[in-house]
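Page 42, continued from yesterday. The earlier attempt failed because a stray header line got pasted into the input along with the sequence. Redoing it now with the clean sequence only.
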Amino acid sequence: MATKLTYANGRGIAEIIRMVLAAAGLEYTEEYLTSKEQWEELKKSGKLLYNQVPLLEIDGLELVQTGAIVRYLAKKYNMYGSNELEAVKIDMYYEGSRDFYSVFIAMVFTDENECLKKVKEVMLPKYFPVYEKILKNCNTKYLVGDVVSFADVGLLECLLAVEEFLGMESIDSYPKIKEYYQKMKAEDRISTFLKGPHRKKRNTEEYVATVKKVLY
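This time it went through. Structure tokens are written below.
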């Protein structure tokens, strides 16, 4: 059975799923929610446990909740470490990236300048020194171990957003993060994803209007 992701045609809380799918090397199709009628039909289908998207249909399953989807993929495709200690580190580093990235998620419904101000004044000083230290002290290729984990993908999503909205100068003063970021972007599967159709563009007024019309 083919793998299909259902969400709006934008990043939102589904972009991390797209990135993990890419890192795992999985091909999939997407269904974009573009009308209220389509959304109501999907809710009536019984596929949505909490009447929320994203929805990932894979292996005969109908999976919802972004974190659950990411972990299902990570466990299945060797992105969750090789033992319990590695797994809990991956969880901690991933959850830190989600706290960081939450400010970018909020841009859909709040003032972009206020969000970026919070990134610069609060999130960067709080999280970047932590990841810089992790990368400095680890003797492995990635955050945990020598294969890409979903923690790496989570941090990459944050770094992509920082570069896009604030510029590389916000990363330049963290040499280990900068080196790691360039390495991650050069990964074959990641590089292909970033250049391909599954990588969504930053929010536009049209996208925000569609999300509000369809889902709210």
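Notes: The first helix runs from residue 15 to 24.
Reminder to self: strip header lines before submitting.
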